[in-house]
Amino acid sequence: MSSQRAQVRPHTPRDLHAYGRRYGLDYRVPGLSIQAEVPVVRGVVREFSPRPGMQLVASDVEVIHRYDSRSRVASPLSIVVMLEGRAEVALGDEPPLRLSPGMALSVRLERQRGLTACQAAGQRLRALTLGLDETCLARLGMRPSIADASRLQAWRLPEPLSQGLEQALAGSLEGAAQRLLLEGLSLQLLAHGGGIDASPASRLARLAPQERRRLERVRDALRRDPAGEHRLATLAELAAMSPASLRRKFQAAFGRSVFDYRRECRLALAHDYLERRFSVQQAAHFSGYRHASNFTTAFRRHFGYPPSSLLSAT
User: What pTM, to 2 d.p., does this model score?
Assistant: First the structure.
């Protein structure tokens, strides 16, 4: 097993560029060139190899400058775990997804359709990335091919597994004992997040072109104006379907109900308002919530932290 000794230090744009070459990522720090000798993050990045073909990267950093990344190589399977902090990710041109503490992301990538990620400044970011190559997956009886379409699935990390990861990273085990512990936890991650459902893009591809366009019309209407009323009957007219057909086909195409999608868009809009220093009450009102208490409950359930924490953190 190989691991990188923990070392708290600043990481500059040049360091990120070096990581990018190693992991197949393009990093960008808005406002800074690659030659800038300015810390982007400060903290610890550790690398482990629990078994051949399996790589685990653990990051515990303070984000000083916002930075973005985009994958540029195919990957049969990666699992990203957010222990602390927030990030926004998107697969190709699909709507962005916000990762919050306790969430995990399973992703399979083809070269032409990469995963983008944005990490905001002013936060502590603790995350794990487990990567597995084709040979390792085959030994484990899993045979996803990098020729498959890019796919992404977000899921909630089980509490016992979250606690195990926290203890392993904070513990003092070394050598074979540490390797066995991390290998067991990596296999648990794989057991929970190894089966990736078809992405919205691939589900849409199975629909007739006209039907696909009508469903996308409804999705775009919700995305453009999430604070609107958007009654099901009105949306069904927009899709030229009955309300029952719209409910069924929207769920099948996008993996969530019409009004679950509207809620996600509303909460993303409210998140932006809060980051721009609007109050919780204003963010709730402008994103379509009549009662701040209902908004606070929905926000905490979706992101894993209360909306007021964004105001106190900035």
Answer: 0.64
